[in-house]
Model the fold of this input.
Amino acid sequence: MNIHYLLIDIKRHFRNFSNTLFIIGIPLLMYLIFGSTQGATDEMAFRGNVAFYVMVSMAIYGAVSAVVAITGVAALESMLGWSRQLGLTPMRNAGYVATKSVVAMLYSAVVVALIFIIGALTGAHATSIWVWLNSALLAWLLSSVFALYGLAIALNFRSDSAASVATGLIVVLSFFGNLFVPLSGTMLNIARFTPLYGIAALVRWPQLSGHTMNVAGGEFGTDSLWFVILNVVVWAAIFGALAVFGMQRSRRRS
Done:
């Protein structure tokens, strides 16, 4: 991996002010509206207050959006011939992939850190520092699953708008992943099989230990640890298979 190219790529993505503002600003704004107001800082939910719950949800959404944005652009660059251009340099494909992976995870780490810092300053509370650290670490690490999603969309829908479509679909998946509004009943049962649900449940595990919040009457349901892990593994495998299929198809066309 070429460190000079890595630094250039980091600067290039962070200089994209509109994209950075959208990826970081939207989840921050949503947290401030729904997490730091309306009594969310006063009501407890197991090992943290409701503000902490909302903060974690927005951190997941922001981290996933960041990773998808970077990987989608990377796949588009490859399709437009940038990989062939890099073939004229000492950098190999493995180095290019490693560079993009580092940039994506760095971008994701910045998003998670900023949202957690703002949350700490505006009333988000947990009963232990370990709840904070484990939630932040899981939000960051598990966002990497959606790197495969970004690649799968960009490689199978070969157009300039593929990265934007992939990022836009994250909004829909976040709703069905139980990130925006606590779901219940039939909607919750459907949500349990969607791509973001398992990630959200695992990131919330330090606070909720598998319980699900329910706006209907303030009741709580439960999820099994094996089920949410299986959800993450299965969707990671699906996204990985789609990414490989898209790459193989692009090579056949070329």
In short: The chain has one domain: 3-253.
